[in-house]
Amino acid sequence: MDERVTLRSHLDQVSARSPNVFAIAEVIEAIAAASIELGDLIADGPMAGITGRLGAVNSAGDQQKDIDLAADGMMRRALRAAPVAAIFSEESELPEVINSGAPLCVAIDPLDGSANLENNISVGTIFSIRPCGSDVLSTFFEPGTAQCAAGFVVYGPQTTLVLALNNSVDTFILDRRNREFLLTARGVKIAPNTPEFAINASNRRHWHGPVRAYIDDCLAGTAGNGEADFNMRWIGSLVAETLRILIRGGVFLYPADARPGYREGRLRLIYEAHPMALIMEWAGGAATTGRRRILELAARTPHQRVPLIMGSMRGVGDVAAIHEGTEPMFDNSDAPLFARRGLFR
Ligand code: F6P
Ligand code: MN
Questions:
Q1: What does the pLDDT read at residue 28?
Q2: Number of separate domains in the chain
Q3: Are residue 156 and residue 230 in the same domain, yes or no?
Q4: Spatial separation of the C-alpha atoms in residues 171 and 183, rounded to whole Å
Q5: Residues with CB under 5 A from ligand 2 (ion)
Q6: 32 and 148, same structural domain?
Q7: 190 lies in a domain?
Q8: Same-domain status, 27 and 135
Q9: Of 185, 218, 241, which one is at a domain's C-terminal end?
Q10: Burial class (CB in 10 A: 0-12, 13-18, 19+), 87
């Protein structure tokens, strides 16, 4: 980090080159400012009255904690002051119109992975920005290719912001003393072939054939199709796994499986898989269900789940190849029901 480039000056530079980025930059700054406050709250935890107590189950089917609701409130307040027509948060049942004349729509997971917090494991905020369509709420049900920017913040040993904007993925680190994000890497590119996989292997008995075959191949090491001795990681925190892929490559899988409630995978399309897929592709990686390119899928329901396999080109390509010619596990899972068009190509 030789030159000191703040997030604000980076956004100014990008907006000067592409004036259509102005409003997007305002939204990013609003989310970044709220994430600095949220990072403080997470770090203070019990000292700030965060009990970690469970509340209701949210519409997406996850247990809500007090910190989830606090994070949701912080992000909403920030977005209300930005040029945002509608917000769709993991914590609410439906998207909400806040200012129909504004140019952008934002889908957000205010605090992903909050189940990890008691263990002091990294959590994050994920966001996806789209130009607002003529019917505001339908914007969220367009394919992921409609996104104009996306990103996530990791609250970990450092607070990192990953931003996909104008076809580039750039990373920032929070300078805690000056309370501003500083650019750490421009135009991040994912290593094309890193022999490392991430999957919740405790679900092996519930997986379907192609996923089992791919992981067995990885475990076979140099004797397998991957022709390498694979390493494995599973943090159980999507933002931390995605950052690792950006830094050193590898493949992440959360496939559909036979458990009740997992027939379309676990992760949600609009505010988890779509933004991560945009980041992957703009960083030279890929994201698929195994059969379909994630960015070409459109959600049928607000909290639509989707199998997500993402990361280095080689790993994702191998997973897609192993699916070819196989039948989908369930009629409603990784079948192309909600794809508008196109294969993983
Ligand atoms: O949003 C869900 C999430 O917490 C992700 O951050 C993470 O990838 C996943 O769930 C972990 O799932 P599991 O409980 O199967 O390890
Ligand atoms: Mn989440």
A1: 98
A2: 2
A3: no
A4: 6
A5: 109, 112
A6: yes
A7: no
A8: yes
A9: 185
A10: buried
Strands 231-232 and 196-198, bridge-based pairing: parallel
What's the gap in Å between 285 CA and the centre of ligand 2? 21
- CATH code assigned at 38: 3.30.540.10
Domain that holds residue 20: 7-185
- Which residue positions in the chain have pLDDT lower than 70? 1-2, 330-345
Q: Which pLDDT belongs to residue 335? A: 44
pLDDT score of 115: 87
**Residue 112 in contact with ligand 1 by CB distance below 6 A:** yes
pLDDT per residue as tens digits for the range 282-318: 999 999 999 999 999 999 999 999 999 999 999 999 9
Q: What is the pLDDT of residue 2?
A: 63
Q: Name the burial class of residue 233, with classes exposed (0-12), middle (13-18) and buried (19+) by CB atoms within 10 angstroms of its CB.
A: middle
Cα-Cα-Cα-Cα dihedral sign, residues 268, 70, 165, 248: negative
Q: Kindly state if the Cβ of 238 falls inside 6 Å of ligand 1.
A: yes
User: Taking a C-beta distance cutoff of 8 angstroms, is the pair 148, 131 a contact?
Assistant: yes
What pLDDT sits at residue 340?
44
At 331 the pLDDT is 53
Asked if 54 contacts 65 with a C-beta cutoff of 8 angstroms, the reply is yes
Residues 215, 322, single domain; the answer is yes
Please give the Cα distance from 91 to 60 (Å, whole number). 7
Last residue of a domain, one of 166, 185, 204: 185
Q: Whose CA is nearest to atom 3 of ligand 1?
A: 113
